[in-house]
Structures are given as C-alpha cells and as structure tokens.
Design goal:
2 domains, single chain, elongated, Rossmann fold, 40% helix, 7-stranded mixed β-sheet, alpha/beta
C-alpha cells in the first residue's frame, strides 16, 4: 500500500483545521486554541513502573513524526507530538487522554500501561481514535474508536504451540510460567490447549513466584520428565536466569518463549544458555528487511541503542494513522475511525497489519531464533 507524503500532508492539514470530533453527545469542545500545528497525542508511563516501555513508545512516535517534518512538515505545517506521562496508573492514563483531547489531538497513541482500559474508555467518550499497544483483551471492548496494534497474548501461545508441533516436530513439552501474571498465564494456557490439540503431551507444568530467583526445583522436575521442548512465557529478566540454570542442571529441551524475551538485557545472565532458543514476536532489530534496517539504524543513531519492540509498535502506529488520515479524505473523528478500521495490509517495521471486526491487529506469525545474543527471524507467515 503506497501513500505519498503529499496526500498525507493534505489530509493531516484538513485534520488540524477542524475542531470536530465524532464522539456524539459526549464530545466536548477542546479548551486549547488551535496553534496551527497538527497535533498527535501520545500517552505513556515515563516515570513509573513501566518507564522503559513508556520511553520507547515516546521515542518511536517522535522518530516517525520527525520523518514527516524533515520532509517538509504536514502540508507545510509542523506535526506536533503532544505527550502526557500517565505515571503507570489507571487514573493517570484516563486523565492523560482527557488532556490530550482538550489539547486538540486528533488521534492518540497509547502505551502498554496496566490501566489501558480506563484510557480507552476516555478516548471513546471523547470520540478520538486511539491506537494502543496494550494486550489487555478488554481494551478494544471500550468501543469502536479503540484499536490494538499489538498481538493478543493468547495468539502468541497458539502460534508457538503450532511451531513446536509442526516445525520442531516436538511430541512432548514442559511449561514453566510465572504465577499471578496475566501475560504468563494467557500464553501458558493457550500453548497447552493448542499443543494438546495437535497430539502433543505436556510432561510437566511448573510455576514460580514473581520475586523468585532460584528455579532449580522446578527445572529439576522438568528435566526428569525429559521433554523435547520447554515453554517459558515470562519476561526477559527471569527468562535469562531460567535459561542459565536450566543449562547448569542439564536440561536438554529446546527453550521456547514469547515477545517479552526480546530485550538486550535478556542475555545479562549468560547469552550462551539461550543459543538455539525460539520466541514469537513482532520485531527484531536484526531483521534483514530494508525497512526494518533503516528504522533500527535511525533509532540507534538518535537514541543510542537498538530499538525495542515497543518503539517499533509506536513508530508503526504513527505511520498508520497518517495513512488512515490520507485515506479518510475528511477530518472528523468518525471518518478517521472508519479509515483506521479499513486498514488492510499496512506494511510497517512490525510486519503487515490489518484489523479484524473487533479492531484487533491481524498479523502474520513471526518466529525468531536466538543465536549469539541476537534475534533472527526464521519464519514469517501462517503456521
């Protein structure tokens, strides 16, 4: 799908020229005067418990916006990113979206903070299209102005189960997950359900508490059940430690993970223990795709390191909104919402994206192999 900067600029110029929102009876007149810029609202946690992901969201949006501005702006006018720190709380997120709406943001990009549903509800009430990276399955249920650009956790569990059965030809697996984690639980349940449907056997299911650093008891039980693969749907900090301890204990299973493994700090506990492992995900800075290579190079030059997946998602969301505005041919919130909903085959650095009827992202499965402290895509498609 090709859209010229000219068409994007003209459409975004129209977008900035109107104060209309498609929010029905809940729509409020923005309090902030129009300063002539085209405003894109962004909220994320840059000072709370998810500050690293929040900063990555902010970075990705700013990089995408700069590409437009460096090419002459938005119809000759500046694309202005209006940022709000939500501090990682539900109240903070809802307040951030309200302030962005009052500041005449025509669309909003939201980070993956825990209170995303509150923010989505506020965006729906304001009639402002929201593109969120949240994986909370309830978020898009807030209404038809809310769209998810990341994948649901259950989809990742299903994809990895199919990869293990159909591509690795594993007949037996074990699962080690984190207790009291919605992310870990969703992936583990989906993986088990789909692996068993494909004729596989789960030899062991073990859990650990979030504060645990010693996994030897769980890994010993797993080792003794002799699985061909071990699914570990947890964050990168725990995954690296688990991989190191598994190697020390002589666990021979191929290690499998999800997108939260994809962080350079995964290898702090020992990169060699992760060689030959596989993860699902959307993005890797080592992807040879030219579009990804340029993005990764530009990001590293500006921010001093490789882009995390959260930055890539935010970058794509910014470009997708620009594309939707160009296709909308009008500026009110309802028409922009409809254009976003009609997105099909949008090519971004996290792959091609379309939206289903529930406004969730539909993307091809990507599987990465870990080797030498890097993630390399080895499969992209439908498993």
């Amino acid at each position: 799908m090709k859209r010229t900067l000219t068409s994007i600029g003209l459409a975004l110029t129209l977008l900035a020229a109107t104060a209309c929102r498609g929010g029905g009876s809940n729509t409020q007149t923005p309090a902030t005067p129009d300063n002539g810029n085209v405003k894109l609202g962004v909220y994320a946690d840059t000072s709370g418990p998810n500050a690293a992901e929040g900063q990555a969201t902010k970075n990705g949006v700013e990089l995408a916006a700069d590409e437009i501005n460096n090419a002459g702006g938005v119809g000759g006018r500046k694309l202005e990113v209006v940022f709000e720190d939500d501090h990682g709380t539900a109240d903070g997120e809802a307040s951030a979206v309200a302030r962005l709406a009052d500041a005449r943001a025509r669309a909003v990009i939201g980070g993956a903070s825990p209170g995303a549903l509150a923010a989505a509800t506020k965006a729906q009430q304001a009639g402002v299209p929201l593109l969120t990276t949240s994986k909370d399955p309830k978020v898009t249920g807030a209404g038809d102005y809310v769209f998810r650009v990341s994948l649901l956790d259950a989809f990742q569990g299903e994809a990895m189960a199919k990869w293990a059965a159909n591509n690795l030809h594993a007949k037996t697996v074990a699962i080690l997950s984190e207790s009291n984690s919605d992310y870990s639980d969703a992936l583990a349940r989906s993986f088990e359900e789909n692996f068993v449907k494909l004729g596989g056997q789960v030899t062991q299911k073990q859990t650990y508490a979030p504060a645990d650093a010693d996994f030897k008891a769980q890994l010993t039980a797993i080792r003794d059940s002799n699985p061909e693969a071990l699914f570990i749907p947890v964050g990168y900090a725990q995954a690296g430690k688990i991989a190191k301890q598994a190697k020390e204990l002589g666990v021979k299973a191929t290690l499998l993970g999800g997108d939260r493994w994809n962080d350079p700090h995964l290898f702090d506990a020992g990169a060699d223990a992760l060689d030959g492992s596989y993860t699902t995900g959307l993005f890797s800075a080592n992807d040879p795709d030219p579009q990804v290579r340029k993005f990764a190079s530009d990001y590293a030059a500006r921010f001093g390191g490789p882009p995390p997946a959260q930055a890539a998602l935010a970058y794509d969301a910014t470009k997708l909104l620009a594309d939707a505005v160009a296709r909308a041919g009008a500026t009110d919130g309802a028409k922009l919402r409809d254009a976003v909903a009609q997105t099909s085959g949008f090519k971004g650095v996290t792959g091609e994206l379309s939206f289903n009827a529930e406004r969730n992202a539909v993307k091809l499965t990507v599987v990465f192999k870990i080797q030498g402290g890097k993630f390399y895509p080895v499969f992209r498609g439908e498993i």
